[in-house]
Amino acid sequence: MSSVEQAASEIYDTKTTANGLKDGVILQNNYPTMLQKYTSRRWRLAYLLVMACVLGQSMEYCMNFAVVCMTRDVTADVGYDLNYTDGHQCNSSVIQSTSTPSTRSIAKVVLGEFDYSSEIQGLLISSPFYTSTISPFVGSVAPRRFGAKIVISLGVLVSGTTTVLFPLAARTHIYLAVVCRLCIGFCLGFILTATLELCLHWSPSHETQQIIALCFAGYSMANIVTFSLCGYLCLIPIDNGWPFIFYVFGGCAILWALTWMYVATNTPEKNTRISPEELTYIKTHRTGPDNRRDRKIPWLTFVRSKSVWAYLAVFVTHNLNSTVIFSYLPSYMDTVLQFDIDENGLLSSLPSATRLIGTLIWSFISVRLQRVTSTTFTRKTTQSAGFLLAAVLTVCLCYLTEGQEYVAVALIAGVTMFHSVSAVAGSVNPVDLAPQYASFISSVGMTSAFISMSLGPMVVSYLIPERTREQFATVFYIIAAVYVVAALIFVFFGSGEIQPWAQNSDRITDLEIAESSTKGEVNSAYVSDMAGSVQGAVAGADGMGIGRGGDGAVRITPVK
Predict the structure, then answer these.
(1) How far is CA 187 from CA 134, 142, 443, 554, 557, in A?
(2) Are residues 79 and 192 in the same domain?
(3) Cα separation of 416 and 356, whole Å?
(4) Which pLDDT score, from 0 to 100, does residue 288 have?
């Protein structure tokens, strides 16, 4: 047991009454059992939050696939011409495929409902990221003022309603469609910070890592679900098919929000269905959020720190390249690889699956490597290896020709697997550099990443106006170059050690650490415990920064 946990245990032993525990509730030594744990109220809320993350990411990313269906010309069989002769003239809207000398199959080409330019498509794809840049700051204050329950509910409810209305808005005016996308991005930005706030009230400290990792794994699962379903929803022979993408995901979000309002509470104390044993267990093992407002943030020191800039380079690269790849993957498979729409959906979900698998593999490698080497060596080795290998595979995509479609899919799947290394290396670097300021550095990283994510798709849309193989090759070269530059910056300037300006660590929780514990001891314990917790959580999120800026820092509590 770490020094921090020993101190925490002593405090809880002496402050049972202060924590408000119910008298007469005695927990058995084996409480909770495996069944009791995963069927408890706190874990049921976690399962709902997983669904919220899946739906939120789906509503944001379904546009990537929907825009292909909205603008794609469709060829539909309409029957056979039994009176076909060689002299019969076929107009431009009919394609003929002769099955016998006297018959032919007739296929009608249905033009796409919208004739969006490449720039307009890029705007629709990237617009949610514009408002996502500011929503985390609003979301860091709202849960404290109104409660995490209502913030999450309204975020999902408004996003779901706007998603359902998107087809009507798109058919009315492009500006209304963009406004809907901006609204979706802003509202979904609340979910991340509000989820962290809720978890810190509901989860025992040693379960926080598991619950947050589970919740944010929903972001990785979302792309698999979204791309897999969109291919089939586009083929529905009603209303051109594509509106059902928005109806399904938006409708599910509305139903989820109504369910959440009925079953969720901001704290376990307010839940009338929780058992006395679980309530006692949560109270005696949770830490709670950091609500202190007197923290002085050394912003100038952050700016001067090469290690902080190295972290930002890796974190921004991870999110920028991920956004570009997944935003234009359906379009690439449609126009260059020329897969059918249903096959496109399934194959577009494959890189998301390999990315999720990659986080697990890199996490295993990182933990094993860190046991025998320094943190700095581990971070630099894994991060640079992952990005450089991803760059090599990305360049290989530029040299493929027709007939190598499945090789291209395999290469993209490999790119996302190697790309996911930053989820367990560079993205947890703030904890290595400055534990007590980790949430603030992560907030800067998130803001920088959202800015790059909003600009990336727009820039790419100007590079691929015709969606040709050569134009996509240009994009792949740029992606590879960004990988290499970020890897080199991290190798030369990155670090896995506590920075000199961060040695004066504060207490990691609101518990009163014993006077004999020096700040150096607390800092050391904070790093060893916190790194494992954040690494697991970020692995689930696959690069989503965990932290909160502003006047108080949401922190991932230490694990046993």
Answers:
(1) 10, 12, 18, 19, 27
(2) no
(3) 9
(4) 56
Domain-located, residue 556: no
Q: What share of the chain in percent tops pLDDT 90? A: 30
Closest of 133, 70, 174 to residue 455, by C-alpha: 133
pLDDT per position as a tens digit, 76-115: 554 544 444 444 343 334 444 444 444 555 545 556 788 8
Which runs of E-coded beta strand occur in 133-190?
Answer: none
Contacts of 480 (CB under 8 A, 6+ apart): 390, 391, 392, 394, 395
Token pair, residue 233, equals 């929803």
Identify the pLDDT of residue 110.
Answer: 56
Dihedral sign of CA atoms 514, 517, 519, 523 in order: negative
Q: Answer yes or no: do 94 and 159 share one domain.
A: no
Range of the domain at 98: 74-110
Edge-to-edge strand ranges of the sheet holding 103-110: 74-81, 103-110, 94-100
Same domain, 95 and 210: no
Residue 403 lies in a domain: yes
Q: Does residue 474 sit in the same domain as residue 339? A: yes
The least confident of 23-37, 77-91, 166-180, 450-464 is 77-91
3-class DSSP state of 110 = strand
Q: With a cut of 80, say whether residue 244 has pLDDT above it.
A: yes
- Measured CA to CA, the distance from residue 476 to residue 460 in angstroms comes to 10
Write the DSSP assignment of 65-109 as a string of letters. HHHHHHH--EEEEEEEETT--TT----TTEEEEEEETTEEEEEEE
Domain count within the chain: 2
Do 337 and 447 sit in the same domain of this protein?
Answer: yes
More confident residue, 244 or 202: 244
Residue whose entry in the numeric block shows the structure tokens 């134009």? 471
Going from the C-alpha of 100 to that of each of 75, 79, 84, 96, 180, the distances in angstroms are 21, 14, 9, 12, 51
Q: What percent of the chain has pLDDT over 70?
A: 75
What is the rounded distance in angstroms from the CA atom of residue 397 to the CA atom of residue 407?
A: 9
Say whether 499 sits in a helix, a strand or coil. Answer: coil
Do 85 and 227 lie in a common domain?
A: no
Same domain, 92 and 236: no
Asked whether 58 and 249 are in contact (CB, 8 A), the reply is yes
For residue 294, being part of any structural domain is answered with: no
pLDDT of residue 214: 76
- Average the pLDDT over each of 2-16, 34-48, 57-71 and give the range with the smallest value: 2-16
Is residue 113 helix, strand or coil? coil
Considering the domain architecture, whether residues 44 and 93 belong to the same structural domain is answered as no
User: Look-up: residue for tokens 């518990």?
Assistant: 511
- Cis peptide before 268, with omega less than 30 degrees from 0? no
Angle between helix axes 519-541 and 205-233 (nearest 10 degrees) is 20
The pTM (predicted TM-score) of the whole model is 0.69
Question: 199 by DSSP, 3-state: which?
Answer: helix
What's the DSSP call for residue 295? Answer: P
Is 322:240 a contact under the CB 8 Å cutoff? no
Residue 307 reports pLDDT greater than 90:
yes
Amino acid at 359: T
- For residue range 261-296, list pLDDT tens digits in order: 999 998 898 988 888 888 888 888 876 555 554 457
